[in-house]
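User: Hey, quick favor. My workstation is busy. Could you predict this chain's structure for me?
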Amino acid sequence: MKWSHRALAVACLAATAAQAAPQQPLGCLIEPSRMSDVGSPVIGVIESTQVERGDRVQAGQTLATLRADVERQSLAVAASKAQAVGDLQAAEASAVLARQKFARAKDLADKQFISSQALEQARAEAEVAENRLAQAREQRNVYAREQALAQAQLALRTIRSPISGIVVERYVSAGERVEDKPTFRVASINPLRVEVVLPAAFYASVREGMDVTVTPEFPGAAPRQARITLVDKLIDGASNTFRIRLDLPNPDLALPAGLRCKADLALDAPDAQRSPRAGAGAGVGPDPAAGLRLSPVGMSPARDR
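Assistant: No problem, here it is.
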């Protein structure tokens, strides 16, 4: 009777290990690596749209523009002020003349041909001219900043893609008013993201940087190599599982997002839950049930004394 209990214990251990080990590829889902609902930074009316659903876009590419007649005129005025050089050139000429007059007055004062009062007046005129030149330069800098501000305000009327990818949806058309709702949805599908759920027993067996074979459930799709980029630091207590994230390269954009897939991690069962080796019950190698017995009540394991 004692040997039948040991055989049952070995069978239970083997069944537990078989359940814990991912002997078969695990189900997974291929998703976009990034998904962005693009909105407008300002309230306005759509003037034109440049892309349609399914178009490939690059980061920074124009998706749509808002009406911006006022902003364009403001920019033109600011640019005219920034490009005007008349006041600056006049101030520079006045400063040059004042410096020359002061130099001549100083030379005449050294030879005692003019009074010290005339010399002080020439010095004061030179200082005033220098201050006017500095003021003209500062004003030109102010005009340049006003031009930059007008350009920034005009740029807010252009809706650009924050990422490179595919336009999934276009929510607006020309003439529509936009406020806080999204205007486009853009998805990045290179690389793709794969989410896999694993039993908690394998938490110590996976790490970032490991390669995983992913087979998309897609006609003609061959297995591809993905890489683990994230291992969750939290285990779900209800299911006793945790998630990992894979990056799946998709440079030719041949794979669409949203596919189901199979992920083969090629992980062995943890040592504490490995199946007994063949022949262990027949006297070949150590007996994994040695030192264990099942009590008749409740079939719970107990140590032999």
